[in-house]
Amino acid sequence: MSKLEQRRPAASVPPTPHQEAPADLNIPDNYVQHTLKTTKPLPPVTWSTLLDNINWVSLLALTLSPSVAIYGMFTTHLCWKTAIFSVFWYFVTGLGITAGYHRLWAHRSYNASLPLQYALALAGAGAVQGSIKWWSRGHRAHHRYTDTDLDPYGAHHGLLWSHIGWMIIKPRRKPGVADCSDLNNNPLVRWQHQYYIWLLVLMAVIVPTVIPGVCWGDWKGGYFYAAAARLVFVHHSTFCVNSLAHWLGESPFDDKHTPRDHVLTALVTIGEGYHNFHHQFPMDYRNAIKWYQYDPTKWFITTMSFFGLASHLKAFPDNEVRKGQITMELKKIKAKADDLKWPTTSNDLPIITWDSFQEQSKTRPLILVAGFIHDVSSFMDEHPGGRHLLRKNIGKDATTAFFGGVYDHSNAAHNLLAMMRVGVLRGGLELESEKAIPPSQRLEVMRGQALAQLRAQVAKESHPVASRADSEVGDWGDIKGLPSPPLSTGALNSEDEATEECTGLNLTRQ
Ligand SMILES: [Zn+2]
Ligand SMILES: [Zn+2]
């Protein structure tokens, strides 16, 4: 590995005895780029290589439960008690994933008491989605490498891939590194991982079959509905977090990546559908921040906290959450504003002298307002105050009249007027000093020092646009065939002073 490719590894810190070191302790700073560049993915799957690339264990697990459930639907009557229990067991095992695997272990968004941890670890095993350790490792990589090839269920590979494809087809790459040392050092997580298969059978099959069987004699209903059919729903509920939640809805907090917020996703995922928020604030115990949004997982954690079984519920400050929202709102407004046509700014308009303005006003209706020259020909008959008010201001400075002297115009009028700009009056107003320059002085040679003084004086007296007047004066842009206007600066107050200094070779303009 070249030095360039592996930048500044973090300082190696030895782990405490018996504690696993973080997996990402010594990765290079450019880990993602470096890994994608230096490791080759497996070749794409084709029809001829499909069978070799199927993950048969996952395929069996994901096809067996729906097959059993469908068989049960056609052969076994569903009694209402079993139906209610199946829904209840769906929520129990689903919360094992959402409140346990996801928000407690993968994101550490709150602390849970030991009884609650055991309950969630057991419930999560009943959802048949792997152990806490395996599940959290993949999920942490998903958050860390969202929409890259190091994301184990990257949404950029399509809806089907992120929903189920990534489990059925052998992955083309290993997921990116994600530290799970906290989980590996957690005895309960290790216990659940070690006995996972037994816990799975207990919680996914035995308990949901035995409870309806013992309590109301519906063993078959328990097996087909509370175990098999319920499992299909729990599976696809969680899978929707990887697929639907990265595809359907809005991005109210950030649109850099694919996660989206949508109530429909929330409904089918026990409240995990506000996924745009979740990817922005993954350590927040909430997915939904509004009271009326559907997030039963948040309600469950809050209830557990009320009973003293959960604590240290992490919530990002509202101020920070709102920053993200406002950024996105501004982005939308900016996109709308970019669709509109805006007036030409003073930087893009020609700077015109008063004389030139007067000259042109004889051939077309030009009116000066606030330093800008406007061609109002298209508006003569549309002016609500009448044509005569515009006509009498042609070739004049109508600033006072426009700003309330005659009528205090509306914002819409200001906007409309700005669209009629054709030039900027040099100095912003009629400069008496301009008239004082005799024609002989319009061709002038002067010292650099004197020129600088004149420039400073002009800047002080005039409108800010005058700062570029020296080089651009008289360029009407679309007005052709006009004689060049006078060019020496109008701030030349003393002819004698200028004459005295006419010894240098700085030609101001011809
Ligand atoms: Zn996600
Ligand atoms: Zn997450």
TrEMBL record:
Catalytic activity: octadecanoyl-CoA + 2 Fe(II)-[cytochrome b5] + O2 + 2 H(+) = (9Z)-octadecenoyl-CoA + 2 Fe(III)-[cytochrome b5] + 2 H2O
Region of interest (Disordered), residue spans: 1-25, 462-510
Alphabetical GO biological process terms: unsaturated fatty acid biosynthetic process
Residue ranges of domain Cytochrome b5 heme-binding in the record: 358-426
Cofactor note: Expected to bind 2 Fe(2+) ions per subunit.
GO molecular function, one term: stearoyl-CoA 9-desaturase activity
Transmembrane segments: 54-74, 83-104, 195-214
CDD domains to which the protein is assigned, alphabetical: Delta9-FADS-like
InterPro entries reported for this sequence: Acyl-CoA_deSatase_haem/ster-bd, Acyl-CoA_DS, Cyt_B5-like_heme/steroid-bd, Cyt_B5-like_heme/steroid_sf, Cyt_B5_heme-BS, FA_desaturase_dom, FADS-1_CS
Gene3D superfamilies named in the record: Cytochrome b5-like heme/steroid binding domain
Protein name, per record: Acyl-CoA desaturase
